[in-house]
Backbone:
């Protein structure tokens, strides 16, 4: 396609996506369908784009590699650092290797609330993924109740190998998970919007209206 045609086409496509994303209301069934249709649009990972497309991306819209950030404050009692994730981009289905170090300045017990904001890059805009069937940008008021098994059950490896708790309460202390392998499910068992693309995930953890931690990650998924 001629460059003179490509640039206007990309521009108007971007305007259309931004307009639709800002105008629709997820509570309305028709609007929800429109958002989900946007999220299903096949996307080229930002790191693999070349030529004219890249020229029109601002820095804060680009995901060139896995990264994570503290969106809370230095006073939050739960501190996570040294997070690793490979391969990058993450392949579905497949195996990932992830590790972290964390410090809990106090014991964290129920009720634990987790508020997730998940966004997917569609053309030139970030589209927030609605909460559908408890998956997406959802708020979980009782995270402890969603952890499978009983509090007395042993944690599975590799968590048990490194004495990392997996049930409430989470006792104060320092925890380290060296890079360890985890299996990811196939696309068929995942939500339909979770396709190849760039994602932003923000998690805010709190208890009794007191923030414990807030972290945001940018990552890419591929088949």
Residues:
């Amino acid at each position: 396609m001629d460059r003179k045609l490509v640039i206007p086409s990309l521009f108007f496509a971007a305007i259309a996506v931004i307009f639709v994303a800002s105008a629709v209301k997820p509570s309305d069934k028709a609007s929800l369908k429109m958002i989900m249709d946007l999220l299903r649009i096949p996307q080229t990972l930002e790191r693999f784009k070349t030529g004219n497309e890249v020229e029109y991306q601002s820095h804060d819209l680009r995901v060139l590699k896995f990264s994570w950030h503290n969106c809370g404050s230095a006073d939050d009692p739960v501190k996570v650092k040294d997070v690793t994730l490979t391969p990058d981009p993450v392949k579905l289905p497949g195996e990932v290797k992830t590790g972290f170090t964390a410090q809990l300045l106090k014991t964290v017990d129920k009720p634990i609330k987790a508020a997730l904001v998940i966004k997917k890059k569609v053309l030139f805009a970030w589209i927030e993924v609605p909460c559908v069937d408890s998956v997406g940008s959802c708020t979980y008021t009782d995270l402890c109740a969603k952890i499978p098994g009983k509090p007395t059950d042993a944690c599975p490896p590799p968590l048990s190998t490194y004495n990392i708790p997996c049930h409430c309460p989470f006792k104060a202390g320092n925890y380290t998970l060296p890079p360890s392998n985890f299996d990811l499910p196939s696309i068929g068992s995942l939500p339909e919007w979770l396709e190849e693309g760039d994602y932003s995930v923000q998690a805010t953890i709190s208890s009794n209206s007191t923030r414990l931690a807030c972290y945001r990650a940018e990552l890419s998924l591929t088949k």
